[in-house]
Structures are given as C-alpha cells and as structure tokens.
Amino acid sequence: METLRQILAPDFLLRNSVYTSVLIGFACPLVGVFLVLRRLVFMGVALPQISSTGIVLTLTAPAWFGFHVAGGHGLAFAGALVFSLGAILVLALLERRGHGLPEGRLGSAYVVAAALSILLLSQNRYAELGWLDLLKGEVIAISNFDLGLTAGMLAVVLVVLGLFHKELLLVSFDRTMAITLGKRVLIWDGLLYMLIGLTVSLAVLSVGPLIAFGFLLIPALTAHRFARNIRQFMVFASLIGGTAAFGGFWLAYQWDLPVGPTDVVLLGVVATVAWPLGKLFSKGSNGKRSS
Amino acid sequence: MNDALIMLNGLAIGYGGQPVLAGISLTIARASFTAILGANGSGKSTLLKTLLGLQPPLAGQIKITGAPVFGYVPQTLQFDSLYPLTGFNVALMGTYGRIGIARRVPAAERTFTQECLHATAANEFAHQRFSELSGGQKQRILIARALAAKPDVLVLDEPTAGVDAAATHALLEFISQIHQDRQLTVLLVTHDLPLVRKHAQQVIWLHEGQIYQGQAAELLTPARMAEIFEMELS
Known about the structure:
The structure holds 2 protein chains of 2 kinds. By secondary structure, chain A is mostly helical. Chain A has one domain: ABC transporter involved in vitamin B12 uptake, BtuC, CATH 1.10.3470. By secondary structure, chain B is of the alpha/beta class. Chain B has a 6-stranded mixed beta sheet with strand order 5-6-7-3-8-9, sandwiched between helices. Chain B has a 3-stranded antiparallel beta sheet with strand order 2-1-4, with helices on one face. The longest helix of chain B has 18 residues. Chain B has a domain of 76 residues. Chain B is built from 8 helices and 9 strands. The interface between A and B is medium-sized, with 27 and 30 residues.
C-alpha cells in the first residue's frame, strides 16, 4: 500500500508516466473494439510495428545527411503518424479489393517493418540514446508535452466516437445498408482509420509497439465476452485497459520491472481469468433469456 | 408507362469489366410486386446491387423517377456474429438515414422502430442478440429495419434462404400484406417458383443470359415455361 500511496502522490517523480500509461490504457481499447469487430486483429499487430518503423526512420534519416536531431519527438510523431495512416489505408484498400491473403500481407508487413527497424537502429550511433527504451516500452521519461498530447488524443477519440458512433457502427456492421441510406462509407471508413492511425502513433511513441498492440486488442477481446451491446463493449474494454495500465505500473514499480511488458502480462492474466467467467456469464444470460 | 419507377435501358451488369448480363431494358412500375427469378449465378443479386447503386453498371442507363427511399433486406448469412447487437439495435439502424450526422436517435424514432418490430411480429425477440436468433427471426428483424427506413421501395434479396417452410409462408404473407397496405414497390429476389406464383404480379426471369419480363400469370404458365426451357434444349 505504501507503493500505491507513493504512486498517487502529486509530487511522484514518475507521475507523467503513470498518467500516460493510464490514458493509453483507456484510449487504445476504444479503437481496438473496431479492429476486433471488423476482424482486423492482425492489423492491430502490424500497425504498431509499422508505426515504430516510421519513428525510427524519421529519427535516423537526418543522420544520413550528417545532422543529429536532439530529442526529436515532434519528428518521431510525424513519422509514426505518416507510416500508420499510410499503412492502414493501403492495407484496408487491399482488404476491400479482396486480393491475396490478408493474413499473409499483414504478417509480411509486420516482419519486414520489425527487421527494418532493427537494421536502421543498428546503423545509427545515436540509437542507444533512449530510442531502444522507447521501442521496448520503457515508460519512464514522459514530458508534460507528451502527457498533454496523449490526453488530447484520448479527448479526440472520445469526441469522435461519441459524436459519430452510429455512423461508424452502421458502416462497420452493414456497409450495403449504409450505402442504400445515402451514407458516404469511404469518408466514414477514412475517419475511423485516421482515428486508429492517430491512436496507434501516439501509443507507439509513448509506450512502444508491444504495449500498444496489447492495449489495442486484449482489453477488447476480453470485454467482448461480457458485453451485451456496443456501448458496454467499448466501456468495458476501456475500463479493463485503463485499470490494467494502472495495475501494471503499480506492480512494475513495486517489483522493479519494466512497465510496458508488465502491463501486457497483466492484461494476459485478466484475459485468462475472464475466459471461464465469460462462459459462465454467457450461459447465465442465455438461461435468463430462455426462461 | 406513366407510373414507371425504375427504367433500365440497354444496361450491362457485371464485375471487373466482365458482363454477367447485357442488353437489359425493362421497367418496374410504382407499387408493383416484382419477383426476380433465376438460377445461381444468373445475375439476380448483381442486378439488385446495380439497381441499389452498390456497384456501377458496365453500360447503359438506370432512370429512377424521383428520389425513392430503398428499404434493403439482405441475406441473413452476411452478418458477422461478433457484433454484440440486439434485434432492436439492428432494426434501429433503419432510421439512421433520416437522422443528421452526429445527432442522437430521437425517442420518436425509437418508438417508430418498436412499431415496425411489432408490425413484423419481431417485438417478442427484439431484445435478444441478433446473432443468436433463428433465420426466420432475423428476417423479421431485417424487414422491420427496412420498414424503419420508411421506404418507397422494399428490396429483398432471397429473404427465405435458410428459413423453414412455415416461416417462409408467414414472411411472404406479411410482405404481400404490407405491399397492399402501404402501396410499397416490392422487388423480391428468390428461387421459389410457388411463392412467386402466389404473391408476385410481375416477374423478371434471368435464364442463361436471357431476360424475360412479364406478368407472373402469363410468364409462369406451364406452356410459357416449357417454351423457355425448350429454347435452351434446342
């Protein structure tokens, strides 16, 4: 409990890290719900990795011309965003056209992006200066600016999903119906992909690709077992993500573990415990309906 | 024809530049009950999708009088069971075309959706998960959703696929009833000849790249059908 008191104290040295983790824990599952519903789970794996390649590339490129960029968070964010949005748009377009094997495309994109990141880092002498920590998910040095950016991202996600919930749901659930009702499906798809791209970019920049992937998918997959409607699905997923982010930070601080991997393992434990509970819940609700 | 709602003129339909059907010229009258018949792969669903604007025609023209609202009832098999939606949630989507972007669904639209569910006798199971309903129950929800759109044209793509005989009979009786009561134009894609004989006024029959259009009572006589099939045999 002493550790908890320390973490919650207003003058806690790593308070920005706690707040950022929790904000990402709340935000990522909200867009992750749509990745799960649209059966784009593999995109949730590939996208954070491609985004991190964007970060590495934009941080490395200046060195090819003899410049060293100190800090470079703005540049990194731009790289992450451009790569995320570009990848999601290209992959979604190929998915829509139905060419080839989607899993094969996403798997290839993931592994090539991961290998490219390692290659670029290995060729850059400044790479050890915090970048590897960033890509491993060491949520330690978070500035006030980064915290503000993450809070802004959560606000954008909440506002967009709150305002356009029915349009995004209709276009995802029944595209044909949406067209016959006069909805511009490409615009709504584009908005959803931009939201996913923005969330993934900021999450990768703050906590790294592994943790971003974990928060995108595990809370949504866990919440799906208990949700009776879409609203509950999103609320449960976000709460699981936010709570696990805080719990993970607490455990990591208590036992001196890396925060990101602790978060993901904790999410895995929650998902494992939820599996039999979900079956019981499903049986219970079926029984209630049939009675 | 003065009451023509949809007119097709030299239409060619298909995918990727490859025509499935060409030279389609026909008229669908307002408030008519038209069945589109044909074997698998004959182009029924492609014709329907082209009429609904879901895919562009390869050639020719589609002229639609006014701006009718389409109430589309797709095949139930296309829906993903992952979505935690109740029957009511699905039916409510029919109202989304009238509600402005970023606006909440007003209480009046919810009430209207309940009325549509009641009209299709789907209110009993509308609170259950859509994915857990039977084929017939899903069809009733989807028809309620189409009605919730306040359609001028009700378009049904094989609504009796995967539905048992009793439910099929009840569904078609219901569709005939609302066709008469609300003066709806009905476009029904089906394989079921007895149902078409009983309910449809007009038939569009797609057979081996040929299109036959006429009154159901004329086109579906044994003599006319034998003529069509003999043409194929010869």
